Amino acid sequence: MVKFATSREFSQEEVGLALRNHGMHLEGLRYPITPIGMHYLLIHFDIPFIDPTTYELPIVGRVRSPLRLSLGDVKARPAVTMPVMMECAGIGRAHLSPRPVSAPWHDEAIGCAEWTGTPLRPILEEAGLLDDVAEILFTGYDRGIDQDVEQHYERSLPLEEALRNEVILAYKMNGQPLPPQHGFPLRLVVPDWYGMTSVKWLKSITAIAEPFEGVQQALLYRYKQSEEDPGTPVTRKYPHALMVPPGIPDYLSRTRHVRVGGILVEGRAWSGFGTVERVEFSSDGGRTWADTELGEPVGRYGWRGWSYEWEAQKPGEYELCVRATDAAGNRQATNVDEVWNVGGYGVNMVQRVPVTLS
Amino acid sequence: MVKFATSREFSQEEVGLALRNHGMHLEGLRYPITPIGMHYLLIHFDIPFIDPTTYELPIVGRVRSPLRLSLGDVKARPAVTMPVMMECAGIGRAHLSPRPVSAPWHDEAIGCAEWTGTPLRPILEEAGLLDDVAEILFTGYDRGIDQDVEQHYERSLPLEEALRNEVILAYKMNGQPLPPQHGFPLRLVVPDWYGMTSVKWLKSITAIAEPFEGVQQALLYRYKQSEEDPGTPVTRKYPHALMVPPGIPDYLSRTRHVRVGGILVEGRAWSGFGTVERVEFSSDGGRTWADTELGEPVGRYGWRGWSYEWEAQKPGEYELCVRATDAAGNRQATNVDEVWNVGGYGVNMVQRVPVTLS
After folding, report:
1. B35-91 pLDDT per residue, tens
2. pLDDT tier for residue B3 given thresholds of 50, 70 and 90
3. How confident is the model at residue B336 (pLDDT cuts 50, 70, 90)?
4. A129-145: per-residue pLDDT in tens?
5. CATH classification of B4-233 is 2.60.40.1180, yes or no?
6. Which of A9, A143, A249 is opposite residue B45, by nearest beta carbon?
7. Is residue A1 scored above 80 in pLDDT?
8. Inter-chain contact B182–A25, Cβ cutoff 8 Å?
9. Residues 241..270 of A with a Cβ closer than 8 Å to B: which?
10. For A198-222, what is the mean pLDDT?
11. How far is the alpha carbon of B200 from chain A, nearest alpha carbon, in Å?
12. How far is B245 from chain A (nearest CA, A)?
């Protein structure tokens, strides 16, 4: 069951999760590749402590030849390096009303790292999937209790998604061994999907014949309109654009103060459904929109820079907004009620940044 | 003025600060040197974006020969590398009642990185301090509004503290260039003092003849019993021990579930007033205490490991506690009311970890 809050006050539980689960500072949108330590984190249980020298990953289940790969085995396989924009499915949850009580993300559950790893598909082929395999289950070493069930964190992918060429087992982030909090020594990286899919601290990979019904798959990470609604699974990232908040902040309230003049507003945009083809900016709370200038995408699975020269001339209060449209024609929601759902997933309403111009 | 909250509900402002200001995961206490990206952060304003190729640090004010050091100049000077345990002065604030509204730290505002830099003292000597110099002022590039005053973040050190041999200008953290969020390209590191002293993103160093009266010095970071109380400055870290919470967590509440048996409880302890000489453990909420086994300190300015074999035999509810005593005889407070102050600084009461044993 999901608990809800209706006030703008947050519970001890939410603050505890906010302190553990690092958000990316939005000024970090300036970097095409998010510097190490600035990337968001969502860690369901504790960070496990794993000895890489004895680490082994079993690939088991409905396969002809079960495998056990050491870290050396994984690193000896063909390597790919690629930027992947990752976003927590819970982004924007704190904007909802009523608000599901969980990690109280606003707009900061993002990051775009350069991941190095080896493609999963050839490993599955080597293990020899049996004909009845429906899904691939990824189990992490992180263990705890969620929804009153003791569990390892684990999630599955439909077979055709697991076989995508760009799905990798990653052992480096920004050219360095994975930091413990990002899945050391080995994690899954699934481009285009929300971050919950990219299971960290891999303990095993299991080919299964029936859909996985674990807590993180059948109960959570589903778009539901009520607790009774079975809902639909959370999968790919919806289009989303964010800006570096311009000007300077107030320490406590984070309200922005901007000086009159020509102001270069910039940020990044992404979608799991195709290239971002349009990013629009508004300085009047979304009443009128103007196209921004788009930069080159940072790789096929990264994000895309955009910028807009805002002629900020008249002192006063403004609400700056930005919204993205992707190649599939998906555009961000203007209103948070359009995207409300029980778990608070995939909330991609337009960012709103109030600024005082003086 | 400091605002106060009396309920266990947290404001939007506090949650916003919790999401930006990363806490160290307490399971990270396992590492003698905190892995990059796991170290706590307290960023008052925004992370500035600084071009290292044109970066110059002026050393000015009451000096005979003002200097301008490029990053190359700084790196060409003698280098030292040392572990320094850093702790935010606001640690424990969220345990207070009434609670000052600011970063709602519980126990996670910690980290122990290995910093590389060059000693400050020879640089000040080269600049030639005039006889009337009382303090050295460190100004950062980070700019914003606090207590209704627009400011760069800046703080001073009394001259004798600034001249301590172990005060360095650091350009590496754990052997790598500083990440942007930790002060790239150059920051101050002042061992033994709370973190607010170690000014990030250094913009200038100024020798001054009068005590600095800026917001972060004269108004904030003072131990005050009332708003009218001028208070005393926050300086060195009080003794503090923390444990890796044993067992497994509940996702939302973070309550701990532990299985009956012999349980190795471990953690780290530190003090800015001298070596930690004793760490005690309690499994009954602090009614009875037992000495733990101490490890070697991680350098002169790092922290010290400790461990305790807890014979956890009888199922039920327990409150695990740990407390440190340093060489100067300072011991942690048992009760949060003993350490209450207006700003919520230096709150070093004993950690309390409720666990369910089954």
Report:
1. 999 999 999 999 999 999 999 999 999 999 999 999 999 999 999 999 999 999 999
2. confident
3. confident
4. 999 999 999 999 999 99
5. no
6. A249
7. no
8. no
9. 245, 248-254, 257
10. 98
11. 16
12. 9
Distance from CA of A177 to the nearest CA of B (A): 11
- Out of A15, A44, A146, closest to residue B15 by CB: A15
In whole angstroms, what separates CA A129 from the centre of its chain?
29
pLDDT value at B214 more than 90: yes
Domain parsing of chain A, residue ranges: 4-233, 240-357
Write out the two tokens for A90: 């819970």
The domain A240-357 having CATH identifier 2.60.40.650: the answer here is yes
Which residue's entry shows tokens 């002065």? B89
Is the pTM here over 0.90, yes or no?
yes
